[in-house]
Amino acid sequence: MDWSDLAAAFALYLVIEGLLPFVSPRGWKNSVAMIAQLNDRQLRIFGLISMVAGLVLLAAVRG
Question: Which helix (H) or strand (E) holds 48?
Fold first, then answer.
């Protein structure tokens, strides 16, 4: 892996993160409000599931 790969991945992450607030600002605000109401345990579980899904996807793509 090269540093340019990491920079490209980060750039793609920023593009994807910016899609929802750009396309649907109200929906994005509602989603953030719902996430803010989760307790710490639920948020940690969501984060863990997200990381595992990302690792599985990365392993499948980079295989």
Answer: helix 40-62
CA dist., res. 60 & res. 62, Å (int): 6
- 42 vs 6, 28, 35, 60, CA distance in Å? 29, 19, 9, 27
Report the predicted TM-score, pTM, of the whole model to 2 decimal places. Answer: 0.71
Average pLDDT for consecutive 10-residue bins of the chain (63 residues)?
88 95 96 95 96 94 86
Q: Please give the Cα distance from 12 to 58 (Å, whole number).
A: 14
Give the integer Cα–Cα distance in Å for 40 and 29.
20
